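Sequence only, no structure available. Ideas?
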Amino acid sequence: MVGVRKRGEEIRQFILENVEQHPSDLVSITASHFLISRQAVNKHIKKLVEQKAIVVQGATKSRRYSLHPLDEWSHTYSLENKLEEDIVWQNDIATFLKELPDNIKEIWHYAFTEMLNNAIDHSSGSWVSIKVEKTASTTKIMILDDGEGIFKKIQRELGLSDERHSVLELAKGKLTTDPNHHSGEGIFFSSRMFDRFAISSGSTYFSHEFDKTEDWIIEQKENKSGTAVFMYLSNNSSRTSKSVFDNFTSDDDYGFTKTIVPVRLAQYGDDQLISRSQAKRLLARVDKFKKVIFDFDEVSTIGQSFADEIFRVFQLQHKDMELVAINTQKQVQQMISRALSKE
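Reply:
I predicted one. C-alpha cells follow.
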C-alpha cells in the first residue's frame, strides 16, 4: 500500500511540474512517462482538481490544464513620494514566499529589490504596480511602471540608433545610466536566476530562459508605454544566487569579470553581420570584462571584416582579454579561423 501511495505522489508531482509546459497534452505525456493508461492519469488529475492544485478548462477534445493559483496579490504604489524597495519587500512580498526554500527566497529577495529599485530610480514614472501569483509549483512576479520605458531611456542616454540596440547592451551586463549610484549588474544577474525572465517596453520585448543557451528573444509587439518586468521561478528549484554569480566570475576576487554576448542581437531583421561597424557595435563596452564569450547561436554566416574586427583587431588592442566563440556553424568558424591566422 505504501508503494502504491508513493507512486501516486510521484505521478501527481510530475503532473504539477509539467502542467504549464504541456497544458493540452498533459494526459498523454504523463501516461507515456509512467507507462499507465489515460484513465489512470485522469484519476490523478481529478484528485488534484479536488485539492484545488490544478484547473481544468474546455471540453474533452480541447481540454487544457493549468495550475490553480494558491496566492494572488497586487498593489499599486505612488512614486511621487520616496518609495523604498526593502520596505515593500519586508511588508508586502516576503509573507507570500515565507514557506519557500531558503535558496528560492534569496533569489526573489535579490531580484525583486533590484527590479523595483530600477523603477524607483530610473523610470521617471508616477506609479509602479506589483502582482504576485504563487501556485503549487511556481511563483510569478510582475513589476509594471508608467515611466519612459527602459529601452527608450537606454537608447536616449547612450545615444543609440535603435531601441533594440538597448537589448544588446543589457545582455552584455554592467550597463547603467547612473554609474555613481548603480553598478549595472541587477538586470543581468536577475535574468539568469529565473526559469524565465522577460522585459516588455515600447515596441521591444526580450526574454531569457535558464535552460537555453543565451536565448535572448527580440520580438516586435504592440507599442506600450512604461516598463513591465516578468519573473518566473519553480518553487523547488535547486538554483542559488551564488551559483549564478559564480558562473560569471573568472578570478579570485569574485568580481563580475566574465560575460556572454549573444551575437545575433547585433542583427536587425534580415541583415547579415558583415561590416566592421556592426562588429564595433557588438564590442561596445566589452572591454569592461576579462573574458568575453561570443555566442553565435542562430548566426549562420558572418563577413570577413566582421570577424577580423573582433578576433584580430580588437584582440590585438586588448591582449589581456580572453575572447571565446561558441556555437559556431562551419562558415562562421572559417571566418574566425581566417582572422586568427593573420595575427
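The mean pLDDT is 87.
Hope that gets you unstuck.
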